[in-house]
Amino acid sequence: MRVVLIKIIRSLFYFLLLISGVGIVQAQETLNKTLNLGGLDRQFIVYLPKNFTHTESLPVLFCFHGGNGSAEGMMSFTADFRALADDQRFIVVYPQGAVIRDEKDPQGSSNWNTIGPYDNGTDDIGFTGAMIDFLKMDYSVNSSRIYACGFSLGGNFVWDLACYLGDRFAAVSSVAASMWQWTLEECPSNDRVGILSIHGTNDFYNPYNGNQYSISMNQLSEHWVLKNGSEGTPVTSQFAPGVTRFLWNRGDACYDVAHYRIQDGEHVWPSFATQVIWDYVSRYTSSGLLGCVPVELSVNSYNKEAEEVSVTVKNIPEGNFEIRTSTGGQPFQPMSPGISINQNTVFPLTISKVRDDKLLLQVWKKAL
């Protein structure tokens, strides 16, 4: 009788350990979460990879569904990253777009709101920032390795994230979606972000060559190549039959731009997209490509009355470079007169005639 009792107690002890999770590796979990933002409940799905423990600090990939889609549908049918997350050790988040009802659509549809002429007041940028804060608090995620991808309207929204939350995302990717014309015009951020786009030349929703709402894929790539300081000429390769990869290699700031053109491809999520997206974004941290040492420019001081700024630049590789300036939301332009620097430049360096609205500074490699 005593032996039986000991076995029962031991079994009960192991059972309590399992349900408490103390010191025990957990299975993968799919969790439905809700955040209240401005009085509106917003939902999202969090997928924790198998054997997840709260002692880990894992990367996070947000995946935004298409127009009138759902987080569940995106996870189960369109872009299922769960097996990849188990293997590569990252958390996947599938946000749910808010349902908007009006006279034209009394039943309502779930969409992503954009800042611009069709803004309906839903704060999806704020919602995304709140989800990041939640994940950092509840799961101690690696905040330097947060990524986003999206399909169709969710892909359009990803470009808004790159512009308005570029300081929080290390890399982003869109499938079958370009940047809205007004996002390009109003983009306030000068943050560099890893960029991947996947697009078919026969896409009816987001035409490859653009329309009155969205810019062309060529213009999209050119915009981010300039912002990221990537090499100006892409390296092209045949990824698969009918699929060409364009890669603008990293510049000295450690950011590149990639584009996959699907010849005659339509408005779909191609079968290769899931793997390609993770392979691309996972190479990035908030400082740029893993293993790459970026050129760092810091402002030491600024004399507003004299319009003089003191700067220090670190990690300058061999070659000739220049300091460029921007007023914010505008492309960086060479300073006038030009400020050239190289490995022999003595820092701190004082630059004159710099207005206080032009203190956004970056280092660029000089054209040959």
Summarize, please:
Helix content is 24%, strand content 30%.
Describe this structure in words.
- The protein is of the alpha+beta class and 368 residues long.
- The chain is 24% helix and 30% strand.
- It has eight helices and 21 strands.
- The strands form five sheets. It has a ten-stranded mixed β-sheet, with helices on both faces. Strands 17, 18, 19 and 21 form a four-stranded antiparallel β-sheet that branches. Strands 15-16-20 form a three-stranded antiparallel β-sheet, with no helix packed on it.
- Strand 1 (29-37) and strand 2 (40-48) form a beta hairpin.
- Residues 1-25 have low confidence and may be disordered.
Tell me, what's the shape? Answer: globular
Lateral strand order in the biggest sheet: 1-2-4-3-7-8-9-12-11-10
Which residues sit in consecutive blocks of at least 5 with pLDDT less than 50?
1-25
Give the distance, in angstroms, between the N- and C-terminal Cα atoms: 89 Å
Structural class: alpha+beta
Rg for CA atoms: 24 Å
DSSP strand tally: 21
The CATH class of the largest domain: Alpha Beta
Q: What is the helix content? A: 10-25%
Report the β-strand fraction as a percent range. 25-35%
